[in-house]
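#struct-help
A.M.: can someone run this one for me? Single chain, 91 residues.
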Amino acid sequence: MILHHEFIRQAKSLGDKLAIIDRTTERRVTYSKALIASLILAKRFKRINDGFIGIMIPTSAGSMLATLGVVMAGKVPVMINYSTGAAENSE
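D.P.: on it. Structure tokens below:
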């Protein structure tokens, strides 16, 4: 089974149970909200004609949901080190 398929199955099963605690913002995200957010992102990512999508955001719920959305869109997530800055990452 592919990772995002299992996430969808679990999210449908667990619904309003807690899925993510984002320590950077103290935000709590349920499985239902995580599923909705990742599907919305996947729909947007599908519009991108490249097979690789760079993700440059700090480790957070948003980072996890963006990565899941990229995978759901059938693309490859490319994690870019947020802490090193844009100039160093472009080399």
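A.M.: thanks! Residues 3-81 form a domain with the Rossmann fold fold (CATH 3.40.50.980).
D.P.: also worth noting: Residues 31-46 form the longest helix (16 residues).
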